[in-house]
From TrEMBL:
<feature type="domain" description="Peptidase M3A/M3B catalytic">
    <location>
        <begin position="173"/>
        <end position="559"/>
    </location>
</feature>
<dbReference type="GO" id="GO:0006508">
    <property type="term" value="P:proteolysis"/>
</dbReference>
<dbReference type="GO" id="GO:0006518">
    <property type="term" value="P:peptide metabolic process"/>
</dbReference>
<comment type="similarity">
    <text>Belongs to the peptidase M3 family.</text>
</comment>
<keyword id="KW-0862">Zinc</keyword>
<dbReference type="InterPro" id="IPR001567">
    <property type="entry name" value="Pept_M3A_M3B_dom"/>
</dbReference>
<dbReference type="Pfam" id="PF01432">
    <property type="entry name" value="Peptidase_M3"/>
</dbReference>
<dbReference type="GO" id="GO:0046872">
    <property type="term" value="F:metal ion binding"/>
</dbReference>
<dbReference type="GO" id="GO:0004222">
    <property type="term" value="F:metalloendopeptidase activity"/>
</dbReference>
<keyword id="KW-0378">Hydrolase</keyword>
<protein>
    <submittedName>
        <fullName>Oligoendopeptidase F</fullName>
        <ecNumber>3.4.24.-</ecNumber>
    </submittedName>
</protein>
<keyword id="KW-0482">Metalloprotease</keyword>
<keyword id="KW-0645">Protease</keyword>
<keyword id="KW-0479">Metal-binding</keyword>
<dbReference type="InterPro" id="IPR045090">
    <property type="entry name" value="Pept_M3A_M3B"/>
</dbReference>
Length: 571
């Protein structure tokens, strides 16, 4: 990425000092609280509140993103932490007071477009506890410690200093010795920060259990279930999903990995032979390398989006021109990929750590699916609470975009390479499901079954047990299993507890959207866009139906989709 591009990003994320203080927002909050409010006044009052909430969210999102881009700069971190510690608690109290004012309006009946948001506000107000406001600040500070530790983590491989994404790229090398060297270097780096992350998790567990107790919930799972507004399925449904994946998908994943190993003449599948995001090439070919720089990735993506749909292409062009993309990996930058959203101007922002791989291409399409969701829901839904969608749907726009772009990459890959890329996409769905089930099962155990004072050793032991269940085909003989036991030290476990099974739900749905697109590509894309415009105005099952699929993740459904994927890979 060029200096000019980074300057544009910095300009996009700039926040005036005045907006980092509560005094910038307090008078408008007070005006809303003081305003007379009858049922007829509510729509106009909600518009004012929505605008204020959008501005607050935009400032918070920009400061958080800026902190993720500069994990090694104390001044940037301090600015974000100061905002989190001073403004956000006041914002939480104000939100509660405004909800209570709205809920107390006599004879008010929300229209259909606001009914779900109104119900969520009612449930959120009931869950609110003043004690959790200050504790929430502590929670954010603890999560930020994880970002700083991992954002400043590096890898030394044969004397070369690499970022984590750069080192992970070496795991796809066709030479087994190179993969093993990269894996061992990454393992050494991970173990080097493991004790620090253990400490963060100890603090997070204490905080999370206290949040639950303060809200009169039996455990953190019950508390988080309400925070995440999970009203369409139960923990028992999740347990059934874990079992279905264990029985229906793990054997298929083992077969895929084993067949590839056999074709490569490997004695077994070692940890450096298995990357769930990019299974090894069975012919030992070098990984696809479709670009070298972030600018090149932007160009190839622009061509693909223009070919798929002119409207999507224009939106991507808007992000390129507006400093809304930061793609390349560099030291001091948080190593994850995500799409942020700034409501005030209806602008998404994509952060990545690309190193030139085909996987980077897929991830950019994924994150841009989120961005399109932000754009379309923001265009259609004036109230900030109605934008985006419930989390059980929110990964469908991203994962479906991975599939919908498959037929528009002739400028990126040769026909043979495109076949490889397509195969990796299908394999990736299958290989992902055991990981998703393992992540979800671990968190159900951690927050509902394990004792509140559970020790780190128990976390390690439980992860090992689950990894042997969901990835039994990976051979760890003779290796130090501390690295395996620390597999739970993953971004989502620290940053967004319980947000993971949604990826599996949405990958299943995205596969269904792609299946429909093969028969009717224009219709599938129309349904895709229409579902994004609905935002949060309808229920999760209705959103799925609008996209042309069912909200299902049961055994029979999984079995049918796995059969479809097997057929596609053999075609």
């Amino acid at each position: 990425m060029t200096a000019t591009d980074l300057s544009a990003v910095e300009a996009t994320l700039a926040v005036p000092d005045a907006l980092t203080r509560w005094e910038a927002f307090a008078p408008r909050v007070q005006a809303l609280l003081d305003a007379p409010l009858s049922a007829v006044d509510v729509p106009a009052w909600l518009t004012q509140w929505s605008d204020l909430s959008g501005e607050l969210h935009s400032v918070a999102a920009k400061l958080a993103t800026h902190a993720d881009l500069h994990t090694g700069q104390p001044d940037v971190q301090s600015r974000f932490q100061a905002f989190t510690g001073t403004v956000m608690p006041e914002a939480a109290r104000a939100e509660q007071a405004l909800k209570e004012k709205l809920l107390a309006v006599p004879d008010y009946v929300p229209d259909a477009s606001f009914a779900l948001a109104y119900r969520r506000m009612r449930d959120e107000a009931a869950l609110y506890r003043e004690a959790n406001v200050a504790l929430g600040v502590t929670h954010e500070e603890q999560k930020n410690r994880h970002s700083v530790i991992t954002g400043n983590q590096g890898v030394t491989l044969r004397g070369e200093a690499l970022t984590i994404p750069q080192a992970k790229q070496r795991l796809d090398h066709p030479e087994r010795a190179e993969r093993e060297a990269a894996w061992r270097a990454l393992t050494e780096s991970n173990l080097g920060v493991a004790a620090d992350l253990d400490g963060v998790m100890r603090d997070l567990l204490s905080t999370r259990w206290q949040l639950a107790r303060n809200a009169d919930e039996a455990n953190f799972r019950d508390y988080q279930w309400k925070v995440l507004d999970r009203v369409d399925y139960t923990p028992a449904d999740c347990a059934a999903f874990h079992e279905a994946v264990r029985d229906e998908v793990v054997p298929l994943t083992a077969q895929l990995a084993g067949d590839i190993a056999a074709q490569l003449g490997l004695d077994s599948v070692r940890p450096w032979d298995y990357n769930r995001s990019n299974l090894l090439d069975p012919h030992g070919r070098a990984p696809l390398a479709p670009f070298q720089t972030g600018a090149q990735l932007e160009t190839l993506a622009q061509v693909a989006f223009d070919a798929l749909d002119a409207g999507l292409g224009a939106r991507f062009g808007q992000m390129r021109a507006g400093g809304l993309l930061d793609l390349e990996s560099r030291p001091g930058k948080m190593t994850h990929a995500y799409c942020q959203y700034f409501p005030t101007h209806n602008e998404p922002f994509v952060l990545m750590n690309v190193v030139g791989t085909a996987e980077d291409v897929r991830v950019l399409f994924h994150e841009m699916g989120h961005a399109f969701h932000g754009f379309y829901s923001g265009d259609a839904q004036p109230l900030v609470w109605n934008r985006w969608s419930p989390i059980e749907f929110v990964e469908i726009p991203s994962m479906a975009m991975e599939f919908l772009t498959l037929d528009h990459l002739g400028h990126v890959f040769t026909p043979e390479e495109l076949g490889r890329y397509r195969q990796k996409q299908l394999e990736g769905v299958i290989a992902f499901l055991p990981w998703a089930a393992q992540m979800d099962a671990f968190q159900h155990w951690l927050y509902a079954e394990a004792p509140e004072d559970v020790g780190i050793e128990a976390l390690d032991a439980k992860w090992l047990e689950l990894d042997r269940t969901f990835h039994p085909f990976v051979n760890w003989d003779g290796l130090d299993e501390r690295a395996r036991a620390k597999g739970w030290q993953y971004y989502h476990v620290f940053q967004v507890p319980f947000y993971y099974i949604e990826y599996a739900m949405c990958y299943l749905a995205a596969t269904g959207i792609w299946r429909a697109a093969q028969a009717d590509p224009a219709g599938a894309l129309d349904r895709y866009r229409a579902s994004l415009r609905l935002g949060s105005t309808v229920s999760v099952p209705e959103l799925y139906r609008a996209a042309g699929v069912e909200f299902r993740f049961d055994r029979e459904h999984i079995r049918g989709l796995m059969a479809f994927l097997r057929g596609q890979m053999q075609a």
